TrEMBL record:
It holds the Pfam family Methyltransf_25. GO terms for biological process: methylation. Residues 63-151 form the Methyltransferase domain. One of its GO terms (molecular function) is methyltransferase activity. This is Putative Methylase involved in ubiquinone/menaquinone biosynthesis. Keywords: Methyltransferase, S-adenosyl-L-methionine, Transferase, Ubiquinone. It comes from Streptomyces viridochromogenes Tue57.
C-alpha cells in the first residue's frame, strides 16, 4: 500500500509545459475498473466544468481547500485574491501544492481542530463531496468542518448524481448497496499507479435529496444547487 495518488500527480505535473499524459486507474470492490485522464487535475480554468468555475466566483476571504490534490483550484483562487490553505491525505499531493506556492498540509478532516484557522469558505471540489464517505460519517465530517468556519461561511462542494450511472454494473452495485444498508452511491474503491495501490476507502456519489438529508442534522443548510447535467455544485451555508 502507498501514496499512488500522490505519485500519479507528481509524475503527471510538468512545471514548464502541459501536463504529461497519464491515466488514473480506480478499482471498485466489485471488480469494475474506471480509467480516466489524469491531466484533468491540472486543467486550465477554461476547461473546467460549470460547477467548478462557479466555485471560484463564489469563494470569498480565507479558503480551506479540502482534498486539494494537485492544487488546480487552490492556485486559481489564490491568483484571484483569496488566501488559500489546502489539506490532503496524500503526502505527494501536498508536496506538489507546496511547490506551486500553496500553503498546504497532510491532514484529513479529523485533524481539523489542530489547524486553529477560521475560514470564510470551505471548498470540496473535484467531486470532493465524495469524501463524506457514508451515511454515518458524513454528518460528523460536516460538523467538524463547521467548527473551522467563521460566521456566515459557505461550503462549496461538487459531486455527481449516481442515478445518472445506468450501466448494468452500476445498477447492480446500487441495488447491492441498498441491500447492505449502504447509501446507493457509496463506492468502495482504491487507486493504483504502476505497482503502487492505496488502501480501500469509501467514496460517495450523491443525489441532491440524499445530500440534503445528510446535511440536515449538521450546522449547515443546503442553500443552492447549481446543476450541470448529473454533475452539480452544492452551496451550503452555516446556519
Amino acid at each position: 500500500m502507498g501514496d499512488a495518488f500522490g505519485m500519479l500527480l507528481q509524475e503527471c505535473w510538468n512545471p514548464t509545459g502541459p501536463p504529461h499524459a497519464l491515466d488514473e486507474t480506480v478499482e471498485r470492490d466489485d471488480g469494475r475498473t474506471v480509467v480516466s485522464d489524469a491531466r484533468v487535475y491540472f486543467a486550465p480554468y477554461s476547461d473546467w466544468t460549470a460547477p467548478e468555475q462557479t466555485i471560484v466566483h463564489l469563494a470569498r476571504g480565507d479558503v480551506l481547500d479540502v482534498g486539494c490534490g494537485g492544487g488546480r483550484l487552490a492556485v486559481e483562487m489564490q491568483q484571484r485574491g483569496n488566501r488559500v490553505y489546502g489539506i490532503d491525505s496524500s503526502p505527494g499531493a501536498v508536496r506538489l501544492c507546496t511547490s506551486r506556492g500553496i500553503d498546504a498540509a497532510v491532514a484529513s478532516v479529523p485533524d481539523l481542530p489542530l489547524l486553529h484557522k477560521p475560514f470564510d469558505t470551505i471548498v470540496m471540489a473535484g467531486n470532493g463531496l465524495g469524501l463524506l464517505q457514508d451515511r454515518e460519517t458524513a454528518p460528523a465530517i460536516l460538523t467538524a468542518l463547521a467548527r473551522t468556519a467563521r460566521e456566515g461561511a459557505s461550503l462549496l462542494g461538487t459531486t455527481i448524481d449516481h442515478t445518472a450511472f445506468v450501466d448494468d454494473h452500476d445498477v447492480r452495485y446500487r441495488e447491492r448497496n441498498r441491500e447492505r444498508g449502504r447509501l446507493p452511491g457509496q463506492w468502495r474503491i482504491r487507486i493504483s499507479h504502476r505497482t503502487v495501490v492505496t488502501d480501500w476507502f469509501d467514496y460517495l456519489f450523491l443525489a441532491p435529496e440524499e445530500l440534503e438529508d445528510l446535511v440536515a442534522p449538521t450546522p449547515w443548510s443546503l442553500s443552492d444547487v447549481h446543476l450541470d447535467g448529473a454533475h452539480y455544485l452544492a452551496h451550503l451555508r452555516l446556519k
